[in-house]
Amino acid sequence: MLADASIDLDVDGVVVAIDGTETESAPSAGTRILVPAAVDSHLDNVTERRRPRATVQLPQDSVIAALDAECAGAGIGTVCISARCEDAPGKGVHVEDAVELAHVLERTAPHLACDWRIHARVEVTDDTAIDALKGVLAASTRVAVISIMEHSIERSRFANAQEHREFYAADWGVSLDEVDALLATKKEGAGERDRRRAEVAQIAREAGVVLASHDDRDVADIDSGHALGARIAEFPLSIDAARHARELGMITVLGAPNAVRGRSTSSSNVLVADAVRADVVDTLCCDYLPSALQGAPLALAAEGVLPLSEAVDLVSTNPARALGLTSPEIVIGQRLTAALGRAEGTTFIGEGLWRDGRVVFARNLASVIDTSVPEAV
């Protein structure tokens, strides 16, 4: 970390000089900080954003446009948005929306501030999921991650069946009886889950897309995903599962909201702070809350869990490496891909975002950029 820092760029946005004083002190409230742009491997909130009222369903392109501004303002350079390959109208998920989202991103992504990619979430209890995945891959060149999902009550992330039922009743806005009906449908489809898991893995291999397992509770779950070719363990539910994934060379991913809130949405899940202390977490993702991604390093540093200089890697350089993307590290000779903002507790108030040397988001940047220098941008 450098205090009182300045970054000089040439006309192409390449970093030509970095000045400042080395420091170990975390930024005080209101301090302006420049950090590598965050790289998010999993944002899953389009379904919820499309329905601001019970009788309103917004088009996906308008939601993505608004989310783009939100993510840019949150300091995120790359966003992997979830395409849910599943048909569950009872919870507002329609299988055709996954392919439509792929078409929307293929058409609009070149005009957006962030670098938008797709995280295809394939629900293996659903007999429409495989065709939906194939449709997403056919429609878009932007699929960066494919994950194997199973939201059956047998493979729940919750401590018990009642907590599972009550969470989804509240999350989907339905009755417990309706949740039970949905779970019964999933149980019927679970008989083919092993075949579908293998087919999803084969499709990912053929497409050259990173495969992720999801909600692994124990060592056996990790071994199962790894045997299929999964190289990312997303949301391992225990320290033992996360540790075993690391031993196998998998990248472990947990949710940034967990770090900021200090708790998970389910009582039995591992806490990010505990996983970081145990050295079993590699990256953090938005999950459902973009503002949490750059806030998580601030929270971990404030709690003394990890120095800020290391915590920022969890949301930037590490996920970039996991996805095979160019690292957003701030170094001389590389185009600047970084986020400028104010640190207010665990809140990152974004002021500017650079991608590949270009300013793609600005909030009163005139106060921090010296435009009198011809080489500056």
Description of the molecule:
- With 377 residues, the chain is α/β, with parallel strands linked by helices.
- The protein folds into 2 domains: 1-36 and 328-377, Urease, subunit C, domain 1; 38-325, Metal-dependent hydrolases (TIM Barrel), CATH 3.20.20.140.
- It has 14 helices and 14 strands.
- An 8-stranded parallel β-sheet has the order 4-5-6-7-8-9-10-11, with helices on both faces.
- Helix 3 (96-108) links the parallel strand 5 (76-85) and strand 6.
- The model is unreliable at 373-377 (pLDDT under 50).
Short description:
This protein is 36% helix and 24% strand. The strands form three sheets. It has an eight-stranded parallel β-sheet, with helices on both faces. The protein has a four-stranded antiparallel β-sheet with strand order 3-12-13-14. It has a two-stranded antiparallel ribbon with strand order 1-2. It has two domains: 1-36 and 328-377, Urease, subunit C, domain 1; 38-325, TIM Barrel (Alpha-Beta Barrel), CATH 3.20.20.140.
Key terms:
Urease, subunit C, domain 1; alpha/beta; 377 residues; four-stranded antiparallel β-sheet; eight-stranded parallel β-sheet; disordered C terminus
What's the layout of helices and strands?
Blueprint (H helix, E strand, L loop, with lengths): L1 E8 L5 E8 L8 E6 L1 E6 L2 H4 L10 H14 L2 E10 L10 H13 L6 E9 L5 H11 L3 E7 L11 H12 L3 H14 L3 H15 L2 E5 L4 H10 L3 E3 L4 H9 L3 E5 H6 L10 H6 L5 E3 L5 H12 L5 H4 L5 H7 L14 E7 L2 E9 L2 E5 L15
Helix pairs in contact: 2-3, 3-4, 4-7, 5-6, 8-9
